[in-house]
Amino acid sequence: MDGTSIIAVRASMLVYLFLTGLVLGIPFPTLLRFLHAENRQDIVPYAWGINGIASVTGSLFSVILAKWFGWNLVLLFAGIVYLCTAVIFTRLRGTTRGISDPETEDAVSLMEDPDEAKLPLNV
User: Fold this and answer.
1) How far is CA 76 from each of CA 19, 21, 24, 103, rounded to the nearest angstrom?
2) How much is the pLDDT for 97?
3) In the 8-state DSSP scheme, what is residue 98?
4) What three-state secondary structure class fits 33?
5) 123 within some domain
6) Per the domain annotation, does 50 fall within a domain?
7) What is the domain count for the chain?
8) Taking CA atoms, which of 17, 33, 63, 121 is between 20 and 30 Å from 39?
9) Is 122 among the domain residues?
10) Cβ neighbours around 59 below 10 Å, total
């Protein structure tokens, strides 16, 4: 290989790694932003736990599956998993819009007009 082709190979690998890292790095921060927007901060520790477990087991199983079936099947399976996750996330996002939280409604009504506020019965 001459100097020009080595530079081209390195440049193409940098572009490939950048694009792969960008695509793989988008879903989890998007989920965290979604949970914050839906006021579900109570689920964030579980999301971090699931992300950690999936990262460890995913790397382990990808190596095992690659030994048995080859990297093409592993990449196909990973693509299917990401596609299914995207479909589930978009459906989840669509179903949670318009659902209101009674506690939030009470707080909002207290701020608007304290005389007509709906107070919870279990006080």
Assistant:
1) 17, 17, 15, 44
2) 53
3) T
4) helix
5) no
6) yes
7) 1
8) 121
9) no
10) 10
Asked if residue 103 is part of any domain, the answer here is yes
Q: What angle is formed at CA 88 by the lines to CA 45 and CA 44, rounded to 5 degrees?
A: 10
Tokens of 32: 């965290």
Element (H, E) at 89: helix 71-96
Yes or no: say if 38 and 96 are a contact pair by the CB < 8 Å rule: yes
Task: Show the domain range for 82.
Answer: 3-116
Confidence at residue 122, expressed as pLDDT on a 0 to 100 scale: 53
Distance in angstroms (rounded) separating the CA atoms of residues 100 and 38: 10
For residues 119 and 109, the answer to whether their CB atoms sit within 8 Å is no
